[in-house]
Write a structure and sequence with these properties.
159 residues; mainly alpha; 4 helices
Length: 159
């Protein structure tokens, strides 16, 4: 066993703290960027809902005018034109409103990328296969480690 590669514990802790700090900073940047992206998308959705609503109001007015004209004229040419224009504006307004609603939906505002990245980051220590000087992988306990912990516990109780 080569002892030249063993790093002192303070150096390991310093590296660990530095890496954890960097990880937290990067995750914070990712979360901010994703939330900003989702907020922009939501604002565009709200604008589209408002635009859709603005188009629906005149569409309803035109459709109502067409219905009145239809009753009065009983199928004259201006009525058919008003129904076609009003129906088209109504469809456009509904499409814009539905697209805007889908962008403002609460489920679309969840920072999915950040959550996935945090889950992957949590899995890294479990999957790295880092071994201790005793040959155990990270997170695994052997009989030797259990005996050593028991011995330290006995010493602590005796003191």
């Amino acid at each position: 066993m080569a002892y030249g590669n063993i790093r002192p514990i303070p150096e390991i802790f310093t590296d660990l703290i530095g890496q954890v700090t960097t990880l937290i900073r990067k995750e914070g940047q990712l979360a901010r960027a994703e939330i900003s992206e989702k907020a922009t998308r939501a604002l565009i959705g709200v604008a589209m809902i408002l635009l859709g609503a603005m188009l629906l109001i005149p569409a309803l007015v035109i459709l109502l005018q067409a219905a009145v004209m239809g009753l009065i004229g009983n199928g004259t040419d201006p009525t058919a034109a008003a129904l076609i224009v009003g129906g088209a504006i109504f469809v456009v307004g509904m499409v814009l409103g539905l697209i805007g609603w889908s962008r403002v939906n609460a489920g679309s505002l969840v920072p999915d990328k950040t959550i996935d990245q945090l889950k992957r980051d949590a899995q890294v220590p479990r999957n790295t296969g880092i071994t201790s000087p005793y040959g155990e992988t990270a997170g695994a306990t052997s009989e030797r480690v259990t005996r050593e912990e028991a011995a330290y516990g006995d010493r602590n109780r005796a003191a």
